[in-house]
Automatic annotation (TrEMBL):
SUPFAM superfamilies: P-loop containing nucleoside triphosphate hydrolases. It comes from Limnoglobus roseus. CDD domains: VirB11-like_ATPase. Pfam families: T2SSE. Belongs to the GSP E family. GO terms for molecular function: ATP hydrolysis activity. This is CpaF family protein. Residues 78-355 form the Bacterial type II secretion system protein E domain.
Length: 441
């Protein structure tokens, strides 16, 4: 039985694509082409495809020729079959578990997509291409890599034997920068809570943003940082530069991993220590995860009020335990009461953000740290919280609550010229903020 016309066209298209791929690799100088602009690469490959098509298969329609050219561009110069996923609106994560198991997170939900690699070696080639572009190496002797794509996306890859079934690749994309209005209109936070946080940032309150992986900590940190006055000098320190501050006086610093010879590492802590000599008004650390927590808390305590950072934690109370653990692992050898006093004198507010069932992000708790009790436990008070009531149609639902505690911070806000009305903190439930519009800053 003869193949259908569509199947025959697909076979001819595949043959043409293979020939074009071979010719591109042979004809173009791949050592120079990495310096070409995407527009030039596209023009060169499409021109070559148009010249080859009449010679190889005159009957191929132009759309088929163009599609083959685009696939070759993605394969030779991009990330192969997942290149199109990285350009797809709404896709925030691309996860490759195996050559034929590719998932994406789209609009907060994971879904499997009809995309596949040829085999495990194909996945490995794409991973090695990513690593090579940023001067990193990944092979059997060094089978893990963290990297950043030119668009800022985070990449993590692991090779066998650490992942015995297949090479594994995870890419987290960062789309357009969200605004405060996006958070409010998307239901992440009520406008009243955001107004309070805005006043806290402007009044130089030391804030820690806590949350799990993918909860939106960096996004929230970016939005809160927008409320810092434009006349202040800011230094940002990150493992991967993601913050996009709009103030005129910003110095961005990024840690550096070891090179191919295992040398040249510059840690977050080294950058943080150096930043203290750069006359910053505030220091913003993208994430505290190790010894740098000592210097971050010291900065908050010694003349850099209003500094901000994030930590991985399950809730705002766990964030304090995480800080203790990081101090201990960093060799901060002091009695527990002294350690807790050190933390409590530095951290004034913890803002916890969560990704709920269904993918929605919510600021689930805003907690004030008021100091220590007589028995050296933390004195904390929830100011606002999101109370989840259940899950319906695969999505969590609940309501934002005012707990009813008057913040100790109100005096600081008033002295800084950002007084908040006490009635805002009367216990009760916020009205739904669906369809509430808020002006962008």
């Amino acid at each position: 039985m003869a193949p259908s016309s569509d199947a025959a066209t697909d076979l001819r298209a595949a043959h043409f694509r293979d020939e074009l791929h071979r010719t591109v690799v042979e004809a173009l100088d791949l050592s120079r082409i990495d310096r070409w602009s995407p527009e030039r690469v596209r023009t060169e490959v499409h021109t070559l495809a148009a010249k080859m098509a009449p010679r190889i298969d005159r009957s191929l329609p132009k759309p088929v020729v163009d599609r083959a050219a685009n696939e070759v561009i993605d394969e030779v110069f991009g990330l192969g079959p997942i290149e199109s996923l990285l350009k797809s609106p709404g896709v925030t994560e691309v996860l490759v578990n195996a050559p034929d198991q590719v998932y994406v997170e789209r609009n907060g939900r994971l879904e499997r997509v009809n995309v596949s690699f040829t085999d495990a070696a194909h996945v490995t080639r794409v991973i090695q291409r990513i690593a090579a572009r940023v001067g990193r190496r990944i092979d059997e002797s060094s089978p893990m890599v963290d990297a950043r794509l030119p668009d800022g996306s985070r990449v993590n890859a692991v090779l066998p034997p650490l992942t015995p079934d297949s090479p594994v690749l995870s890419i987290r994309r960062f789309g357009a920068v969200l605004s405060a209005a996006d958070l409010v209109n998307g239901g992440t936070v009520p406008p009243q809570v955001l107004k309070f946080l805005q006043a806290c940032v402007a009044s130089k309150v030391n804030i820690v943003v806590s949350g799990g992986t993918g909860a939106g900590k960096t996004t929230l940190l970016n939005i809160l940082s927008a409320y810092i006055p434009p006349y202040e000098r800011l230094v940002t320190i990150e493992d991967t530069a993601e913050l996009k501050l709009q103030q005129p006086h910003v110095v961005r610093m990024e840690s550096r991993p070891a090179n191919l010879e295992g040398k040249g590492t510059v840690t977050t802590r080294e950058l943080l220590r150096n930043s203290l000599r750069m006359r910053p008004d505030r220091i913003i650390v993208g994430e505290c995860r190790g010894p740098e927590v000592i210097d971050m808390l010291q900065a908050m305590n010694t003349g850099h009020e209003g500094s901000l950072t994030t930590v991985h934690a399950n809730d705002s109370y766990d964030a304090l335990s995480r800080l203790e653990m990081m101090l201990g692992l960093a060799g901060f050898k002091v009695p527990m009461p002294v350690m807790r006093a050190y933390i409590a004198s530095a951290v004034q507010l913890i803002v916890h953000i969560s990704r709920l069932t269904g993918g929605e992000r919510k600021i689930t708790r805003v907690t004030e740290v008021r100091g220590l009790r007589k028995r050296n436990s933390y004195m904390t008070r929830d100011i606002f919280k999101f109370e989840q009531r259940g899950v319906k149609d695969g999505r969590a639902f609940g309501s934002f609550q005012v707990v009813g505690h008057l913040p100790k911070l109100l005096n600081q806000l008033e002295m800084a010229g950002h007084a908040m009305p006490e009635k805002l903190f009367q216990a009760g439930e916020f009205q739904s903020n669906e369809n509430v519009l808020m002006e962008d800053r």
